[in-house]
Amino acid sequence: MGAAETHEAKTTYREAMREALREALRADDRVFLMGEDVGRYGGCFGVSLGLLEEFGPERVRDTPLSESAFVGAGIGTALAGMRPIVEIMTVNFSLLALDQILNNAATLLHMSGGQLPVPLVIRMTTGAGRQLAAQHSHSLEGWYAHIPGIRVLAPATLEDARHMLAPALADPDPVLIFEHGSLYNVSGELLPPTEPVDLDHAAIRRPGTDISLITYGGSLPKALAAADELAAEGINAEVIDLRTLRPLDDAAITASVDRTHRAVVIDEAWRTGSLAAEVSARIAEESFYDLDAPVERVCSAEVPMPYARRLEEAALPQVADIVAAAHRAVD
To answer: Which alpha helices (DSSP H) does 288-318 contain, by range?
Structure first.
């Protein structure tokens, strides 16, 4: 086993993302990384640490604190033939660039009759659980999943963190990658890829027969832990990782519910108008007659995310909430 392979065998989510960036920068001179503190500071969450020293300030570019400006610059360079990777510190701050994302990046290919693709990748941290309070902790990826013209990814495993970036850069459309902040320190064995990551399909993370737990991103570890608790009680839960939030893999969702006849959708966003609501609606449209119980949803409390640890924990979906929802559906 070579040195690089040994390094990748045991890693963290943060290091897997960093290696994906390093691979992209090495593979294509058109690729560059830009954003707030991605250079000398190494990224606000340490993902780009060391890349400035390796690739220089032309390829790893610190930007002013203006999300609209540097996302707009990313769109412009993508139109000019570059392959920019734009990092926004947190999803809350991406709202300052929403005009650029919605009115420019997502629409130019359509409005130009196919003449102006925007091969742009935007990475940002999402989610709560780290006591960063309301301006740094919300899960707004469902808002972006509402927008035609973009692809929305939520890597939840080491393998997806490591291998989703390359196909995202190859996509002619803008791709938004949401990295849950609670996952950066997750460590484990990184399996070597047997085939390219499929950005069009959800993944079955645990097969089951009694109920489907459907989730994505930072809620995946909680869903798996809930499945373990349910298994100890004799309930065999299937865990579906959506992975791609736009376009949703309707076939995978439908196939799972058709097998288990019950579903719990776990989404760290607010319940009202959430991605969980969309998934629930699609289950009702496509699998209504296969359901043996109403679809359950486990979402965050409808409040700005609290700072105090116990309040934040109370506001977020927890393993016990998922287990309780599963019991309501099964019992």
So the answer is: 309-315
Could you list the beta-strand ranges (E) of 26-156: 31-35, 60-62, 83-90, 121-126, 151-153
Question: Cα 126 from chain centroid?
Answer: 8
β-pair partners for 122: 86, 176
> How many CB atoms lie under 10 A from the CB of residue 76?
15
Return the active site residues: 67, 136
The token pair that represents 107 in the structure block: 């629409």
> Which token pair is 296?
């359950």
The DSSP 8-state label assigned to residue 301 in this structure reads -
Give pLDDT tens digits along the chain (331 positions): 444 444 457 999 999 999 999 999 999 999 999 999 999 999 999 999 999 999 999 999 999 999 999 999 999 999 999 999 999 999 999 999 999 999 999 999 999 999 999 999 999 999 999 999 999 999 999 999 999 999 999 999 999 999 999 999 999 999 999 999 999 999 999 988 777 888 999 999 999 999 999 999 999 999 999 999 999 999 999 999 999 999 999 999 999 999 999 999 999 999 999 999 999 999 999 999 999 999 999 999 999 999 999 999 999 999 999 999 999 999 9
